[in-house]
Amino acid sequence: MTTVRGARARARVEITAAIKAEARTQLAAEGAAKLSLRAVARELGMVSSALYRYFPSRDDLLTALIVDAYDAVGAAAEGAATETAGRRPLDRWTAVCRAVRAWAVEHPHEYALIYGSPVPGYTAPQDTNAPAARVGLVLVGIAREAHEGEGIALPPLPDPLRPEAVRITADMAPDLPPALVVALVAAWSQLFGLVSFEVFGQFHRLVEDRDVFFTHAARRLGQDVGLLPRG
Amino acid sequence: MTTVRGARARARVEITAAIKAEARTQLAAEGAAKLSLRAVARELGMVSSALYRYFPSRDDLLTALIVDAYDAVGAAAEGAATETAGRRPLDRWTAVCRAVRAWAVEHPHEYALIYGSPVPGYTAPQDTNAPAARVGLVLVGIAREAHEGEGIALPPLPDPLRPEAVRITADMAPDLPPALVVALVAAWSQLFGLVSFEVFGQFHRLVEDRDVFFTHAARRLGQDVGLLPRG
DNA sequence: CTCATGCAAGAGCAGTGCTCTCGTTTCAGG
DNA sequence: CCTGAAACGAGAGCACTGCTCTTGCATGAG
Fold this sequence. Notes:
The structure is a homodimer of 231-residue chains. Chain A contains 9 helices and no strands. With 231 residues, the first copy, chain A, is mostly helical. Chain A has 2 domains: 1-55, Arc Repressor Mutant, subunit A (Orthogonal Bundle); 59-224, Tetracycline Repressor, domain 2. The first copy, chain A, is elongated. The N and C termini of chain A lie far apart (51 Å). In chain A, 42% of the residues are buried. The interface between A and B is large, with 59 and 59 residues. The structure holds a DNA duplex (30 and 30 nucleotides).
């Protein structure tokens, strides 16, 4: 049963949540590298070994935070998409990009956890895959809507490399033309290039008005996948 | 004097180089987070405290590696630019992007060091600025050449956000039109979005032929800054 | 030749992730 | 209701980390 079976089970979920909350606080304050199991336990009034009853290792605690971060940025993107339902696809695209950026700027350490360097020997377990895909799926959804409504026009590609030659996993969006899927994957990664450079400080003393810059770049990204500027 | 003043000075530069070499080996093997001063010293047959004669702290050793990494990827980009001198700007652009990607794929941990999450409380000192700018300057140079030769055409921007409204530090490329500078900065960061997603594994089980995909995306990036497909 | 300086070694401090043991508390099956 | 298994918190301990300080030795400049 997944229902609460008693005081013990209730305490377990509460303590697990408290550990994650305190870990997230330390993460936001100092970054992932300085997240210390002992410090978390100390702050919670426990002893470090007691924490291993809830998370088998430090990496497992990090994994939980990673999943939460993916879910948070995914929820931000989905929220922006639903709030702009019915508007022009290019405006929706831009709104979603801006929501991702806003979340990243507000939670730089959590952003770094999921879109920065992978932690040392750590390989992401399978259960991070679904949360990690949420932002991408939102973008695909907007493009699909535009495509079905004929509100999309991929610019001609005078390119020796036909996009059909780029093999993308088919089950991602089998209903969309390959050229659009390729453009979407590229735009998706390029979006996080823009966000990462801002969050990681590469725009320091280079881009003054980062909000305006990002909005402009995100809009052009939407045009790159064929979203039309006028509905 | 910068010349060698004696056996002592010679030994100093040799040992400094040996430390950096061993540190780079460990960096490539395990990643930045697992780089241990004691392990480096152990491997070199010294005791850990002796290492502090050469690097005041672990972060200073990391800084040295960061500068080296920026220089390495910058040199790769510059090499690709000089090797393709005289060819069409769009081809040169693509070649430079491919050189950056190739270096990143070959040195993932060093790439993560400079384009991944910033390390914990660490703020990059001033002497990393110049090496960090090299790749961007190569891209600017190619765009400038195309612009001077009239081989550039920024597509019309039916965009409510005029690029002139995006303030970019003026002394970056004062001779180029603002719209081009904005497009260049965006393309620069988007290039590293493509590379980071590949190196950090976000394309896992998604993009099959990553070399073809990257070349295609890099070429479109070049077109985004106005480089013409036909010379 | 002398002596300040550069240097390696070692001990030591405070901190880390993690394991193991040892009493105690809780909860479920008989 | 009772009992035994499971879950739990506390503590000691291991091997490791970055870093500091002191001690003695070798180098090389004056």
